[in-house]
Design a protein that fits this description.
The chain has helices spanning 8-15, 52-67, 71-82, 88-97, 100-106, 113-121, 151-163, 202-209; strands at 125-127, 130-131, 144-147, 172-175, 181-184. The protein is an alpha+beta fold.
Length: 211
């Protein structure tokens, strides 16, 4: 299974914004964005003006890195979104919000999407009562994500829920208890997109994806 293995703080510096790839470190003074570190590379101090293509590419890269998807996955999601009669850009964002690893993170079971992906691949969650280790699975309304009834799984999730109480979006319902679970109540809309990436310009992404 392909995954991103490069230093994650470099990615934030390259995009010039927080992508929240390192959980709690992103909220501390150690964050390189808060310390105004330049972009990586020997020419990082020299920020040249981006071309029209460069602007679109950077928006696309921000979105891919934020949700932790690779180019092949992104292309597949774009094809699904383009077949919808609704706005393609908004559909693309809502598809990314429906990923299992994103749902696990937004329910508060994991501190960031990288940790949520690991939680899923290591078999700590169930979907509709069935074991699932596919982070890219797209959930539908009515699907239930539940922590497996194992001491290690429950400890990981309970610790994170206590340390970082989540702001659960409207399209999800968190059901706390001995075995925490969450339910997808409806399909997410543009307003349900994670506020930390809500200012993304999806129209620029569509323009470069259709080239």
């Amino acid at each position: 299974m392909a995954r991103l293995t490069d230093p994650v703080c470099k990615k934030c510096r390259r995009e010039g914004m927080k992508l929240y790839l390192k959980a709690s470190r992103c909220y501390t003074p150690k964050c390189p964005i808060d310390r105004e570190h330049p972009a990586p590379g020997m020419h990082g101090m020299r920020r040249s003006k981006l071309s029209e293509y460069g602007l679109r590419l950077r928006e696309k890269q921000k979105l891919k890195l934020f949700y932790g998807v690779l180019e092949a996955q992104f292309r597949r999601y774009f094809q699904i979104a383009s077949r919808s009669p609704e706005n393609t850009g908004e559909q693309l964002l809502t598809i990314l919000e429906r990923r299992l690893d994103n749902i696990v993170h937004r329910l508060g079971f994991a501190p960031n999407r990288i940790s949520a992906r690991q939680l899923v691949t290591h078999g700590h969650v169930q979907v509709n009562g069935t074991y699932c280790n596919i982070p890219s699975r797209l959930l539908r309304p009515g699907d239930v994500v539940k922590v497996r009834n194992k001491p290690v799984s429950l400890k990981l999730v309970r610790t994170n829920l206590q340390e970082s109480p989540p702001e659960v979006p409207d399209f999800l319902e968190l059901i706390p208890g001995e075995q925490p679970e969450g339910r997808v109540t409806r399909l997410p809309s543009r307003s349900d997109v994670d506020p930390r990436i809500a200012d993304i310009r999806e129209q620029l992404i569509i323009e470069i994806a259709t080239r």
